What we know:
- The protein is mainly α.
- Helix 1 packs antiparallel against helix 2 (27-40).
- The chain is 56% helix and 0% strand.
Amino acid sequence: MNIRKFKSDKNALIAEGNRIVSSSDDARFIRKVTIVNLLLRGMSAKLLADASGETDRTLSNWVRSVDEYGFESLRPRKQPGRPQSLTKS
């Protein structure tokens, strides 16, 4: 079993995640932050992967991304949906 060595303070990441969950309206982002917080608190990636429908590799990548770049790295880069038209009709 590999144990991750964090670049950031885990307790600070958990506190930031709790703040984001209470202040954000984006449901997908909140879901990812909540899952990462559970992993940071010591929950097994395999158990959480089975419960969430994500792969354990995806969850590990989320934790790595948050550790290196912060929780904003979990936000989608591109907004879903059809772009607005450039001309008015």
